[in-house]
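Page 37, continued from 36.
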């Protein structure tokens, strides 16, 4: 019984130290690459043993908050939420979630990107480069590149990570499409592009919505 209490107490201390270190990073406004205090200093500041601090730092490193660099110590790491999103998508798949709901999330990202294209007068060269005129040249990779280029308008690292993982989910498993399906998608890409080119952003959004929601039918 005492051993269980000791384990629980130690885990609680570790969690407290983890929370305090995260608060320290925020209150001190540390940036990526900035160094945390030494293990010894943290133990003194939080009045815990160095072994507890070591466990807390190990947890922070394993969860991608910090990284240990030889000769430099423990540094704030650039955040990568990709594993978190992939974990969510795995749970979504295991629980047999509705893919149309996930397509709505994907659509939300792309509509937001069109808002940025309108606001920032973003170049359309990348989107134009994905267009093809011959249906035999159209495949899932061309389709993916078209949508990736729309999303490229948004500079936010967080947005890029989230949207990229969600979008890639739909291309992991190839789906059977007919020549007629590909021809229709190819023409829809062209229509969306021309609407953007003409600054008809509301029309571009409507076309994109119809295009993606039609695509959702392939996942039924």
């Amino acid at each position: 019984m005492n051993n269980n209490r000791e384990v629980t107490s130690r885990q609680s201390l570790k969690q407290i130290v983890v929370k305090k270190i995260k608060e320290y990073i925020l209150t001190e406004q540390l940036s990526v690459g900035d160094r945390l205090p030494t293990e010894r200093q943290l133990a003194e500041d939080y009045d815990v043993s160095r072994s507890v601090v070591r466990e807390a730092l190990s947890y922070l490193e394993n969860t991608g908050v910090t990284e240990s660099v030889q000769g430099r110590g423990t540094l704030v790491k650039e955040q990568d939420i990709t594993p978190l999103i992939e974990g969510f998508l795995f749970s979504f798949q295991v629980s047999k979630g509705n893919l149309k709901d996930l397509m709505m999330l994907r659509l939300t990202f792309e509509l937001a990107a069109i808002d940025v294209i309108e606001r920032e007068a973003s170049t359309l060269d990348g989107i134009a480069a994905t267009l093809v005129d011959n249906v035999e040249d159209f495949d899932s990779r061309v389709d993916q590149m078209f949508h990736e280029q729309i999303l490229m308008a948004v500079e936010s690292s967080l947005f890029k990570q989230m949207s990229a993982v969600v979008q890639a989910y739909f291309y992991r498993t190839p789906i059977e499409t007919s020549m007629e399906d590909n021809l229709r998608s190819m023409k829809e890409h062209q229509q969306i592009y021309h609407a953007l080119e003409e600054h008809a952003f509301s029309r571009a959004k409507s076309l994109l919505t119809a295009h993606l929601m039609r695509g959702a039918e392939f996942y039924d």
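The mean pLDDT is 88. Flag for discussion at group meeting. The beta strands are 66-69, 73-76.
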